[in-house]
């Protein structure tokens, strides 16, 4: 991903944020112990708010079980 939803190039910070978001989505899909799975989903939800507010990505986290 190199642009936001409006087609503007991502800044270095936005690229890092999208990377964190992708990593958390990957972790949320793994078979983690319950305490880790729960906390990963909480972190994912928080980062998803920032990603959505910045117009970097948009998806329903309920599709990921969050």
Helix and strand topology:
Layout: H1 12-28, H2 34-53
Helix pairs in contact: 1-2
Uncertain segments of ≥5 residues (pLDDT<50)?
none
Structural class: mainly alpha
Helical segment count = 2
**Largest sheet geometry:** none
Q: How many β strands by DSSP? A: 0
Please describe what this structure looks like:
The structure is a single chain. The chain is mainly α and 66 residues long. The protein is 56% helix and 0% strand. The protein has helices at residues 12-28, 34-53. It is elongated, with a radius of gyration of 12 Å. The protein starts with 11 loop residues before the first helix and ends in a 13-residue tail after the last helix. 11% of the residues are buried.
Question: Which terms would index this structure?
Answer:
66 residues; mainly alpha; 2 helices; 56% helix; 0% strand; elongated
In short:
This protein is mainly α and about 70 residues long.
